[in-house]
Specification:
550 residues, 8-stranded parallel β-sheet, TIM Barrel, Amidohydro_3 (chains A, B), alpha/beta, Urease, subunit C, domain 1, hydrolase activity, acting on carbon-nitrogen (but not peptide) bonds (chains A, B), 8-stranded mixed β-sheet, 23% strand, homodimer, YtcJ-like (chains A, B), signal (chains A, B), globular, 30% helix, Diaminopimelate Epimerase, Chain A, domain 1, Amidohydrolase 3 domain-containing protein (chains A, B), 3 domains
Chain lengths: 550, 550
């Protein structure tokens, strides 16, 4: 089904030749060293293994006869950016399905859906994602009747932008045998209207429809992966932490590796302990394919998202007084999974968005830390709404805060509505985390947001959106420095994945993963940074991407 | 559970050094060429990639300064033997569980079970395999009461030698909640006694108990694999076709490969189409780890085994007049699975033991052959009892007969009882297959039999058992020549797995997989052959095994 929907052609990825002893000269070179100190250089020498051999100063002698030399003509060179939290296959499939994330109103979305259905008559289901009733200013969830007006004859199933809710038409509900009598599973909710399912399904209830969608074939998966990889290369992501790898996902990554088609690096976290154990077996895998792939840990989901009110809060939602959201795991379930992973040396990354979820994750880590010696590098993913009294506990417990700066401008108005003003003090609180001594790893949560890291860097340093709004930044006391933003997308993102011994900086001995940029992100304005895109993306001393015309 | 049962220590596999330009000199060298013609040589030169560079005659000049030279002092050198049909993880787990295959009576077996339970008090379940009421001369199946007398307090579950039946004690049936009311699933049978389950479960019904056995952990699986590999190396098997790989099995093989612990070569057939698609994805995998691992196809089960009367016969069993055995797939199911595999380029291997199953497999291949161009190399596994009128169809349809010579002496008396004299004409009918022009690939069906290929070669050329019985051979008109036996375990076994371009002979360019033997199997007596064991086992130019004292 998805196969037929694929129109984009795969770019030929691997045209860039391998080089022994490469010199990239005449650069405005920037990296952090292993302690986070800024280092500047004007030339980069890469050895035959694709590792950094030497950083050169203006006055340093250049190698006399490198096998390959590139004159960067003063362009800026920075370490390859690491996305500490993304969903690789989610990105790939989003590139193969209808994208509603740019629609500005329900009507615009319905028009796009109608057009897509007409353009793809062979598809048995219309699958899409990215809708956001908040961005549409709709003031309510959309419903099946809205969709039926656009596509009455075929099932339509559209994931919300945050992945925590789905929107079905009547044909999809019929195909999935969902009726007024259907019960939401635990951890899920069926939106109702006049005693009937309205068409919107929240969190665990999305499975009621999703289970009826025809499964993609392995060839669809492999194509989705290559599309995702190409997109990441174009956006300057050289490594991504894949947050919730299934065995099917893993097999696609391995097939790419086996066929020498793996360009980016993937730090994989198994989708719950079953996938972790099936993929890793008795412990984390070694680094595979020249440090391109490793399963290092497990991703656990403790709550949902703010937009769908699935995030688990200490006090009720400001805009839905009876509701506090839902924990997706009992205390015992959470701890059992954490112990099972940790005993076998797997790292644990816990999705926690609401302040109650964050507190519970910290409580669980407290319970386990005493009995589990060794450096665990517990990760809390998102750490979006944190009670300020809990922030110091991240530091005390050695927890990495894995946060996505771009969520802040995207969520701003919604967060204000959901939380009210008081709770915003611990919302997207990067600077508070940093001040408390917490390690900050930055990512995108792609495909919830674009994987493009530059708007994320711009958000991190300015707390403004694509229009530069609000002027002066939203709660600007929580901005971070440019160096911290760079650190979050490079050195600390590597640390968060136990990879700081090979990537994240350009110090000698590290893998030569880097970008060539038109401007210096330490000098450019936030709006200039937002518009940046790499001229070239190099991984392990190979140039995998070169922008057209550059 | 199985972990605790493991007593054997893992030999250090990888002590043998790599050599560039190796000379094995002064050998009585034997190989077939690509057309099956016998070639003799006295020296073997291996290049730095572990491939055969040259075969030397007595008069040929030797390389002047090889990096490594071994003087074999006139010992015999033959190609590494290929087991065309085995179960690698089954062998591994059999090495970690109670082995009853050498017991000569029910009493002896019960004594062994009692002793094993006493020696392993920490095991929650006693797991074993290898029993055979025929070998015991019991005249009936054993039952739960027999077992309860040996182990009353803990569940006991023992697989029959052919893997097609299991024997439980009362505690195991209680743990699995099996009662008089339990129904056998389709394709299975619960043996009953006085209106109660007797304790023996046949074919699909074995799952009723097996599902309650605690699952082995990944670390148990990995250890089982390394034990199996070591055993195969000691027995002179350099490549094995793994007939029914699950995703768990595959992950163990990959972990071994990733850690540079994969010594033997594995040609993998997925356990039904689900595992095939999950492992291979859109098609067969490439050869991985320097030709050590490849998933090439799928294993389908069309019937059971003769011992448990699960083999599907055209006419009723001679010793159970009402029964004809069971097809495990409907005609539509079989063809659907074959099409699904073949359309994606996977090879299909169909388990067929009874003459009805063989005829149905041939019918299905006939139905598909016309619509599927290209060389499919359909395989029928076992092809044990074939109606003589069906034998020419193997040749017509291009079907490889994948047979296990050692089954013949093991099954002889039982086959006579099950089939009566008339049907023995197409039983284990190697020479008839060969005469009809059918490609014969030989294997062991380990762990149903020992993986040791030498008793298999002896059986193939003599149709006698370990005691040399019956004198002159059982239906000796079906013996094959020594050259054909060698071909079945080398060149044709490689062909059967689409691997003849890299293994199976020692012609220049092929992987240097070979054995050093004490005697020449083309000259030795059947009883000498039966007792052979390699002095050394080399794979890809590495010596992975050297017998103590040799």
């Amino acid at each position: 089904m998805i196969r037929a929907a694929l129109c984009a052609s795969l770019a030929l990825l691997f045209a860039a030749p391998a080089h022994a002893d490469t010199l990239i000269d005449n650069v405005n070179g920037i990296t952090l060293d292993k302690d986070g100190k800024l280092v500047r250089f004007t030339g980069l020498v890469i050895d035959k293994d694709g590792k950094v051999a030497k950083l050169l100063d203006r006055k340093d002698k250049r190698p006399e006869r490198p096998d390959f030399k590139e004159d960067a003509k003063g362009k800026t060179l920075i370490p390859g950016l690491i996305d500490a939290h993304g969903h690789v296959m989610g990105l790939g499939f989003s590139l193969m399905t209808l994208d509603l994330s740019e629609t500005k109103s329900l009507d615009e979305a319905l028009a796009a859906i109608r057009r897509y259905a007409a353009d793809n008559p062979e598809l048995p289901w219309i699958i899409g994602r990215g809708w956001n009733q908040e961005a549409w200013g709709l003031g309510r969830f959309p419903n099946a009747a809205d969709l039926d007006a656009a596509v009455p004859d075929r099932p339509v199933w559209l994931e919300r932008v945050d992945g925590h809710a789905g929107w079905a038409n009547s044909a999809a509900m019929r195909a999935a045998r969902v009726t007024a009598a259907s019960k939401a599973p635990e951890g899920g909710r069926i939106e109702m209207a006049n005693g009937q399912p309205s068409g919107v399904f929240v969190d665990a209830a999305t499975n009621l429809i999703a289970a009826a969608v025809p499964k993609p074939l392995a060839r669809d998966r492999d194509r989705a992966f290559l599309l995702a990889q190409q997109k990441l290369l174009e956006q300057g992501i050289t490594t991504i932490a894949d947050m919730g790898t299934t065995i099917d996902d893993w097999q696609s990554y391995r097939r790419a590796g086996d066929k020498h088609q793996l360009a980016i690096r993937i730090i994989s976290y198994g989708h719950d302990v079953d996938n972790m154990a099936l993929i890793g077996g008795p412990g984390p895998t070694p680094w595979l394919y020249d440090d391109k792939l490793r399963m290092v840990g497990v991703k656990l989901y403790l709550d949902g998202a703010l937009g769908s009110r699935g995030a688990w809060l200490k006090a009720p939602y400001a805009d839905a007084p009876g509701q506090k959201g839902l924990p997706l795991l009992t205390p015992a379930q959470l701890r059992n999974k954490m112990v099972r992973a940790s005993m076998d040396g797997f790292q644990v990354a816990i999705h926690a968005i609401g302040d109650a979820a964050n507190a519970e994750a910290l409580d669980a880590i407290t319970d386990l830390n005493a009995d589990l010696p060794g450096e665990r590098r517990w990760r809390i993913e998102h750490a979006q709404i944190v009670d300020p009294i809990d922030i110091p506990r991240f530091k005390q417990l050695g927890v990495v805060a894995s946060m996505q700066p771009i969520h802040q401008p995207s969520d701003r108005l919604m967060a204000e509505a959901r939380l009210g003003p008081e709770r915003l003090k611990g919302a997207y609180a990067w600077r508070s985390m940093e001040t408390a001594g917490v390690r900050l790893a930055f990512g995108s949560d792609v495909p919830v947001e674009s994987a493009n890291p530059f708007p994320g860097i711009a958000a991190a340093i300015s707390r403004t959106d694509a229009q530069g709004q609000p002027f002066g930044g939203w709660h600007p006391e929580e901005t971070v420095s440019r160096e911290t933003a760079l650190d979050g997308f490079t050195r600390s993102a590597a640390f968060a994945g136990f990879a700081e011994d090979r990537i994240g900086t350009l110090m000698p001995g590290m893998r030569a993963d880097f970008l060539i940029l038109d401007a210096d992100p330490l000098l450019a304005s936030p709006s200039e940074i937002r518009g940046m895109a790499p001229r070239e993306t190099w991984i392990g001393g190979y140039r995998y991407y070169k922008r057209k015309g550059s």
